[in-house]
Amino acid sequence: MAAAGVPGDRKGILERLDSGEVVIGDGSFLITLEKRGYVKAGRWTPEAVVEHPNAVRQLHMEFLRAGSNVMQTFTFSASEDNMESKWEDVNAAACDLAREVAGKGDALVAGGISQTSVYKHHKDEATIKKIFRLQLEVFARKNVDFVIAEYFEHAEEAVWAVEVLKEAGKPVAATMCIGPEGDMHDVPPGECAVKLVKAGASIVGVNCRFGPSTSLRTMKLMKEGLQAAGLKAHLIVQSLGFHTPDCGKGGFLDLPEYPFALEPRVATRWDIQKYAREAYNLGIRYIGGCCGFEPYHIRAIAEELAPERGFLPPASEKHGSWGSGLDMHTKPWIRARARREHWENLLPASGRPFCPSLSKPDA
Ligand SMILES: [Zn+2]
């Protein structure tokens, strides 16, 4: 076995995707650790990696056990513009935690950067690229396996991020937090994907802001855009673990329930099995999640795609496929739920008779 930090015999991200393997991403950190008391909503910065490393380590462990092949560094918003002097220690500690856990299984470490707070005020390319480069220098020093530019709402800034990330000579993935209507300057998803690939990204797609089915609609548009331009790239989707059919262009941020009352929208594990199957059928081979996407959702991806992958994750030791564990139950009406047809066709009740099923976005 390779020592932690030296994944010598481990296949890299592009080797895996080039050979047609399914790569399972990880899920929610900020939203999940906020609920557990380690992240403050509003700022959404990840100082938990230094303040409460065990909380972050445990969440990485749960995703690994659920089947994740990628441990993303918990470095969302951990840039100099958001965290001042703390940014460097946070990035270094996040890399160490991700590497420590990745070494316990078949996972790679991905260094992640996200959109800056600067872009919306002044589109100064040199200043913004300098911010990205600072985080990248830590990732390079810590020798992450690949890098991800994620959560970009403007194609232009995402392209700048990819151009900087390319400098480290590692594979680059890029995901935008956009829906089918495109980025905040009305650049359609297909055109965003083309720009990212031309800038040097090998893996492109979407993350966050929209639920599973909306994210897959956006991915279909990205795929069609790449095909029309004659470009080849691997596809990645990391959707919310919340359903958002009523969202406008801004995604779940504009819902009145964001961020403290989203629970009625949580996807079930069966919803996520459907998402994994549809993503796979669309040709997406890097499938994971973002906010609200818990370890059991990741396990649902691994279980749905077990026939293709040939194995189940460790967490499936405690989960019979399609509810089969219930066949041991003493009550016959519960035993009767130990079958695929029950869970696949169920319309789960919300238990909230006075609630609407959809909201009106604020923006
Ligand atoms: Zn997210």
From TrEMBL:
SUPFAM superfamilies: Homocysteine S-methyltransferase. Binds 1 zinc ion per subunit. Involved in the regulation of homocysteine metabolism. GO terms for molecular function: S-methylmethionine-homocysteine S-methyltransferase activity; zinc ion binding. It comes from Trichechus manatus latirostris (Florida manatee). GO terms for cellular component: cytosol. Zn(2+) binds at C208, C290, C291. PANTHER family: BETAINE--HOMOCYSTEINE S-METHYLTRANSFERASE 1, S-METHYLMETHIONINE--HOMOCYSTEINE S-METHYLTRANSFERASE BHMT2. The lineage of its organism: Eukaryota, Metazoa, Chordata, Craniata, Vertebrata. This is S-methylmethionine--homocysteine S-methyltransferase BHMT2 isoform X1. Pathway: Amino-acid biosynthesis; L-methionine biosynthesis via de novo pathway; L-methionine from L-homocysteine (BhmT route): step 1/1. Its cofactor is Zn(2+). InterPro entries: BHMT (IPR051524), BHMT-like (IPR017226), HCY_dom (IPR003726), HCY_dom_sf (IPR036589). Homotetramer. One of its GO terms (biological process) is L-methionine salvage. Residues 11-305 form the Hcy-binding domain. It holds the Pfam family S-methyl_trans. Keywords: Metal-binding, Methyltransferase, Transferase, Zinc.
